[in-house]
Amino acid sequence: MSTDVCHLVIGPRKHGVVEYAVSVHEALAAEGVGHRRVLLDTPWSPLPSDLSACGLVHLHVTDRLFGTSPAQASKHLLSVVEAVGRPVSVTLHDLPQPSDGSSMNARVDFYRTAVDAAAGVVVSSEHEAGLLKRHVAPEAVPEVVPLMIGSRVQHPMSPMPAVPTVGVLGFLYPGKGHIETLRAMAGLPPTVGFLALGAPSPGHDDLVDELRSVAAESGRSCEVTGYLDDDEMRERMRGVTVPVAYHRHMSASGSINTWIAQGRRPLVPQSDYIDELDRRSPGVVTIHGNDDESLQSAIYAAVEDSSTTWLDPSVEPVPSPSDVANAYAEVLARWRR
């Protein structure tokens, strides 16, 4: 019987879920766990023949990686599972929730398909486990393996830049919090700039024009960096005066963890997921109310004293890559058996 575990990573390399899937495999390798990895650009790319040596194939799944619609994504996912011909387990990302609006029901159908096809399911927060059971599969018993926080950069606090900025990290798309953050800056001096670290998601280039238009109303600078490589991103993140993550419907957040790994303590709105993160790793975020007025107050306070946006040296964020690797190794070995 085949005993290997293989990680089949599907999608463009710059996609956050794909990057995370690769980082999980790298963390496993760093712990000496010899799982295989196969990278495919699309779900319809030919599968390598050596997957037949795997006792279990693991996928990181979100509907947007498998198709332009949830229905198309379901067809592609089932095609992959059939072509693999081995037991498949999944990590589900970006679980459907009511804030999805009219697309929610179709997204629920896709995630139901993924659960039914899987030998085991991982989610990245207790909040996501609740979404899964409430909206997708009441009988599901997912394993919760929180998103890893990369090794914290132990650099001293950077000095206040000559031109202060409020920054949002990640792809631009509706609901991510870019425009809300910029509008919350309305009462700040125009010398405080707005910085979007990342590029627009496909189909959302219009958001760049909207941001620049709103910034121009108050004479404020607005920079959208576009894609940055790892070194450029780290440098720009450390130069931001106030890091903000104002996504009010998040169920797990790689962007927040990326800020934390750079020694930053971002401003975040209170939610079930943020409460869970704060319990698990106290002191890594600054929590404010879940409304625009609270965001505005938090930004003003952080501009006044930017030392609050840096992690205290005594804080050790969890889970580490090693923690996550060990959790995945145990779960996948159990499902492989």
N-to-C series of helices and strands:
EHEEHHEHEHEEHEHEHEHEHEHH
Report mean pLDDT, rounded to a whole number. Answer: 93
Task: Tell me the radius of gyration.
Answer: 20 Å
Distance from first to last alpha carbon: 10 Å
The major sheet is characterized as: 6 strands, parallel
Helix content: 25-40%
Structural class: alpha/beta
Low confidence ranges: none
Q: Label the overall shape.
A: globular
**Number of E-state strands:** 12
Strand order in the sheet with the most strands: 2-1-3-4-5-6
Work out the strand percent. Answer: 15-25%
Number of helices: 12
Verbal overview:
The chain has twelve helices and twelve strands. It is of the alpha/beta class. The mean pLDDT is 93. It has helices at 16-30, 63-66, 70-84, 104-117, 126-136, 178-184, 206-217, 230-239, 254-261, 272-280, 292-304, 321-336; strands at residues 4-10, 36-40, 54-61, 88-92, 120-123, 143-144, 165-169, 193-197, 222-224, 242-244, 267-269, 286-288. Strands 2-1-3-4-5-6 form a six-stranded parallel β-sheet, with helices on both faces. A four-stranded parallel β-sheet has the order 9-8-7-10, with helices on both faces. Strands 11-12 form a two-stranded parallel ribbon.
Considering the chains and any ligands shown, give keywords for the structure.
40% helix, alpha/beta, 337 residues
Topology:
Layout: E1 4-10, H1 16-30, E2 36-40, E3 54-61, H2 63-66, H3 70-84, E4 88-92, H4 104-117, E5 120-123, H5 126-136, E6 143-144, E7 165-169, H6 178-184, E8 193-197, H7 206-217, E9 222-224, H8 230-239, E10 242-244, H9 254-261, E11 267-269, H10 272-280, E12 286-288, H11 292-304, H12 321-336
Parallel strand pairs: 1-2, 1-3, 3-4, 4-5, 5-6, 7-8, 7-10, 8-9, 11-12
